[in-house]
Amino acid sequence: MTEVISKTKSLIIKHEKEQSALIPLLQNVQTEYGYVPKESIDLIADELSIFPVEIYGVLTFYSQFHLNPPGKHTIRVCQGTACHVMGGKVILDNFSNKLGIEDGETTEDGLFSLERVACLGACGMAPVIAIDEKFYGKVQLNEIDGILNKYRETNEK
Amino acid sequence: MKNKILICVGTSGLSAGANEVADNFQLELKKHNLFNNYEIIKTGDKGLFVDVIVEIIDSKKTTYINVKPDDVIKIIDSHIINNELYKKRLADENYTNFFKDQERIVLKNCGEIDPEQIDSYLERDGYQAIQKAFKMSRDKILEEVTDSGLKGRGGGGFLTGMKWGFGKKAESNTKYIICNADEGDPGAFMDRSVLESDPHAVLEGMIIAGYTIGANNGYIYCRAEYPLAIKRLNIAITQAKEKGFLGENILGTNFSFNLKIKAGAGAFVCGEETALIASIEGRRGRPKPRPPFPAIKGLWGNPTIINNVETLANIKHIILNGAKWFASKGTKNSTGTKVFALAGKIKNTGLVEVPMGTTIKELVFGPGGGMINKRKKFKAVQLGGPSGGCLPESLIDTPIDFESINKTGAIMGSGGMIVMDESTCMVDMAKYFLKFTVAESCGKCVPCRVGLKRMLETLEAITDGKGTQEHIEFLKEMSPTIKETSLCGLGQTAPNPVLTTLKYFPEEYEEHITEKKCRAKVCESLLEFEVIPDKCTKCGLCFRACPTDALEWKKGEVAYINRDKCIKCKACFEACNFNAIK
Ligand SMILES: Cc1cc2nc3c(=O)[nH]c(=O)nc-3n(C[C@H](O)[C@H](O)[C@H](O)COP(=O)(O)O)c2cc1C
Ligand code: SF4
Ligand code: SF4
Ligand code: SF4
After folding, report:
1. Facing residue for B11 by CB, picked from A24, A86, A122
2. pLDDT tens digit string along B162-175?
3. H or E segment and range at residue B420
4. I need a labelling partner for B582 at 20 to 30 A (CA). Which of A81, B93, B140, B515 fits?
5. What is the CATH number of the domain that holds A13?
């Protein structure tokens, strides 16, 4: 039994075996792995008696879920209204340029994933980004290199 | 009594180092052996983004703002040991003005209590309202809520009392209360702040709602993007259970109420009632036709009352102070107060609570403190997010109440209020919101799925400089069709941002089409930056601002922009103080 399967099993036990447990369960799996592995999906489908296609339907409907492993650090760039007005799109374009990836992608070295989010709900700090759990407010274009390098350096250590 | 040190540790406080500030206070107090005289209280957001905010309550209340971890030693030294204010971080006039004209009911506890300690809530009338409500008849509570005139704060503005009435009347042994904490509207953060700063107030509202309609179970459907809110709600639920305010036979009565949290998974449409229910049931969040309304047939087919966070947070105050008190605030048809999330090109961004009927101007130039950049004029204010609209300066005296705002073509919405100045392009704003709704449409019905996409393509053509007069006609014809034929509120309101900008800013559309010009310098395809040599003072500010090496400048030389390398980010244009870049 692979590690993913035994882990998913242990998560399933914590939930009722019914449809309403599906989303929380998938969220648990994603918290564990950063994405939802195929093996987990098959197992959940079996245990909850739901068709896999239906699970894929749910996974693709909700923007929170990922089907591929994310980078070590996830950069989420807010595209809320306040951020848009304060230049959030240019910030996203710059991250995209500097990392050489589009939003939704992961850098080749696996260090960063880039995501656009509809709103982080921190409009007072616009334009705002979050790297993993840490928020950066009032981000200036010329700060981007510094921010990225900080994560690159800690990674090299 | 111990003196108190209140430290704001909301999402914004945390990003500014609030935890370090708190740790340093802890450390320093210990060092000076003052631990027994002072109590440190970590509060939620106070509502103004001048982090970190620290308030010291001794013989009086002193507020320090923008406190950095390094300031703590100095504050202790000066304020606490030498009894002298630490002037450098003292709250300024601006801070005082921000709070001066607010009337805080829902936000009363924000920044005043520790949201992770139920005792902190209990000290300020916490759970008094449920005790009072349990002594009232269910009909009497319903009457109070109805007479208060409270309307739903989630956007729809439906009378809360009437909704509860439907739920109460519905015959069923199983009923549910759902708190809608999805707050999907980009540009809104009122609900997040209330949940992070005063979670028990929302629980209290839900318990009263459950008692009134006879529901024993509740769900809080919270955005997954709000981990701190979810954490604090979990703590609040556990503590409320321990004290007997939640769970079986609450306070010895025969009423039981249990609460669960469901984290959303990132879909705006799940804020819509029927989609939210589908999501809790574990399915794709796709709206269903109403009727049947959830109040009659909701979660798993049972009567379900769905209320917004702010709506529920108002309930305890109505019970404690009475319907008359509540109805005396605001206007005749829009009673009470409303919380707004002020953001954008405004000096003070943050949470503002004012009586309904306050004008846009009073809000923007009162607590808002006016424009962030005095050189740039107010252009518009956006209300109601993707369902709302942009209102121009000529409507700045509009009172903010449900009726007056609806008349303008915008909607009150949930409370997001984004201020825009000359550097915002109105066609781009319309495009921005449509992009959002197109991405968030669940795809169930054609007008919303296909119609909005066509509208977006049309707007893209206009901002790309390929616009024609027919495009405007198309937008005007398409909008009412989509509004009338879409199944849910998302599609029904999605054209509003386009319609209001067409109505109030036709000249900007015109310019994009005929002159291929974007006056706000936002629409990239229409931009070509260049330096006007005669005006350039050779200062080099633009060079420092440019994130690429498109800007060429050497000391003593006029700047030059290499268009091949320019990403049109506008940074040089914003940086130049001499209008030398056009
Ligand atoms: C697309 C869409 C998104 C919505 N999002 C929210 C939301 O995030 N929060 C909310 O309280 N209401 C939202 N609503 C309104 C809810 O459907 C519902 O009217 C509201 O939660 C009822 O509570 P209230 O009467 O207390 O306002 C949304 C409606 C639509 C059509
Ligand atoms: S209007 Fe849009 S979001 Fe609403 S049901 Fe139709 S397609 Fe889905
Ligand atoms: S900022 Fe303006 S004035 Fe200064 S070098 Fe650049 S273009 Fe010239
Ligand atoms: S628009 Fe941006 S990239 Fe282009 S020259 Fe100006 S600062 Fe540099």
Report:
1. A122
2. 999 999 999 999 99
3. strand B416-421
4. A81
5. 1.10.10
